[in-house]
Amino acid sequence: MLPLLRSPFQGELLAWLFLHPGEEYAQIELAKRFDVSASTVTREVDRLSAAGLIVERRVGNLRMVSADTDVVVARPLTELLALTYGPSAVLGERLSDVAAVEQAYIYGSWAARYSGEPGRVPRDVDVLVVGDVDEDDLYDVARAAERQLGREVNMRRVSRVAWEASAGDPFLDTVRSRPLVQLKIDRGHGR
Known about the structure:
This protein is α+β, with helices and mostly antiparallel strands and 191 residues long. Helices cover 46% and strands 18% of the residues. The protein is built from nine helices and seven strands, in the order αβααββααβαβαβααβ. It has helices at residues 8-18, 27-34, 38-50, 74-84, 86-96, 109-114, 135-149, 160-164, 170-177, and strands at 25-26, 54-59, 62-67, 103-107, 124-130, 152-158, 181-182. The strands form two sheets. It has a four-stranded mixed β-sheet with strand order 6-5-4-7. It is globular. The two termini are 26 Å apart. This is ArsR family transcriptional regulator. One of its GO terms (molecular function) is DNA-binding transcription factor activity. InterPro entries: ArsR-like_HTH (IPR011991), WH-like_DNA-bd_sf (IPR036388), WH_DNA-bd_sf (IPR036390). It comes from Planotetraspora silvatica.
């Protein structure tokens, strides 16, 4: 997504921290959120801290980290991260607050780039939401995400039955045949 970064995880971690300015996270919490080992988080935190992009502090035996929003590159870096890794950081959290969201996926060109397919940075983000979700709630989430990400967000709702059907819907057949990025829906996120 952003070839300046060492790894997709580094991009996801930076996006999460810079798109949640003022929040700090325990390393173990970040390892759980991104489904990586604690040692992987420690290595990236060490690199990013040495580069002056994040700040850290100790609380007992916990190492807490946050984005350094005072660094000269904070604003442009945040904008780049919002455009590249931001959709996965922002959309899962926003959809976690919406009742009846069972699963959600980013599909289309953004998911293709995220999965390694070459091409230009997408102008929009397509999201498939599984569940009996109120359309007005999805509209509100999409508009709020657009403001945060600086790009159009298109949401489409499907029922659990339609999503689990093996075939028959041309749209869903196409979506399933291409890269998908599952969003983490966290009902107990509390942030």
